[in-house]
Amino acid sequence: MTIYGVLETSNSNDNFVNLVIRTDNDTLYNVKTSKEVKDTLKPNHVYEFNCEVKEGKRTSYHLISVLDVSLMESEKRYEILQKFMAHTDHDFYYYKSKLYSYLALIDNKIIYDITKKIIDENILDFLTYQGGMRVHHAYLGGLIEHTVGMLELATAFLKIYEYLDKNYVYAGVILHDIGKIKEYTDIQNPEFALKGHLLGHVVISAMMVDEAAISLNYKEEEEILVLEHILLSHHGQLEFGSPKKPMTPEAILVWYIDTIDSKFSVLKDELSKIEEGSTTMPLYILDKQRIYKPHKK
C-alpha cells in the first residue's frame, strides 16, 4: 500500500518507531519502522510511504520504503505537493505552456540556446519552487507564477517602447530568478542552502548562464555578458543585493517589472485579509506604508 502524507509526529518503544502520517484528507496512519529510518525523515514534510499491510485484531502498517516527494523526477511531484501546500491558482501544465510560448519568441540563436538549455535542464524545479521564502510568491509554483507575470508585463512594455530588445528582455525575465532553485534547500519548508547564504540567487543565476555558455561554446559572445548583466543587476540597487546597477535599457526594465510584480503580489495578499474601508498593517515592501482598501462602488 502506498500512502502520500505528512510526517506529523513519531513515538517509539524498544522494538519499533511509530510514525504518525496525515494524508491530504486528514486521515491518520500509524506506520511502523526503525529508528534509523525515522532519523532520516523531516517533520511536516510530504513523503511517499510504501507499506506492508498486516491484518489482525488491528490492521497495522509496516514501512517498506519511503521517498521524499520533493525529489520525484516527474510532474507527479507537483500533483502530490499541491494537495498539502499553498500553491498557484493555475496548474503545472498551464505555466509550462506559457513559459515555452515566451521562450519561442526569442529569435537570437545564442540567447535562445542559452535560455532553453537552462530551462530544459531545470524545468521540474522551475515549475515547482517558491518565488521566495517569506515575502512574495512564497508558495508552491510561486517562482514560475512570478516569472510569467513579469513576462506578461514585459510584453506590454515591448509594444510601447519598440527600441527595447525583446530577446534580452524575455531571456532576462525567464532567467532572473532561476538561481532560487539552488539558493534554497528544498521545495518544502525551505531554508537558505550554503550556496544561498554565500552567493545568493542573483549571482547563482549569472553563474548558470556562464556554465551554459561554456558548454555551448558561446563564452566569448557579447550576448552572454549583456544577459549576465541583466541578471546581476535585476535588484536595481547595491543595497538590495545587486552587484551592479542596471546599465542597459533591458536591465532597467527587468528591474522595474520585477519590483512591480513582487510588490503587487504582496499587496494582493494583504488586501485580501482586510475589509473595504480599512487599511493594511504597515507593509515592509512599501516602506512600512499602510494601504487603504476603498469601498467598491
Question: Would you give an account of this structure?
Answer:
This protein has 297 residues and is α+β, with helices and mostly antiparallel strands. It has eleven helices and five strands. A hairpin with a 5-residue loop joins strand 2 and strand 3 (28-33). Helix 3 runs antiparallel to helix 4 and helix 3 (92-103) packs parallel to helix 5. The longest helix has 23 residues, at 249-271. It starts with a strand and ends in a 26-residue tail after the last helix.
- Integer average pLDDT: 92
- DSSP, total strands: 5
Overall 3D shape: globular
Beta percentage is: 5-15%
Task: State the order of secondary-structure elements, H for helix, E for strand.
Answer: EEEHEEHHHHHHHHHH
Task: Give a quick precis of the structure.
With 297 residues, the chain is an alpha+beta fold. It is 44% helix and 14% strand.
Can you give keywords for this protein?
alpha+beta, 11 helices, 14% strand, globular
Secondary-structure blueprint:
Blueprint: E1 2-12, E2 17-22, E3 28-33, H1 35-38, E4 46-54, E5 60-68, H2 76-81, H3 92-103, H4 109-128, H5 142-160, H6 166-175, H7 180-183, H8 194-198, H9 200-215, H10 222-232, H11 249-271
Parallel strand pairs: 3-5
Antiparallel strand pairs: 1-2, 1-4, 2-3, 4-5
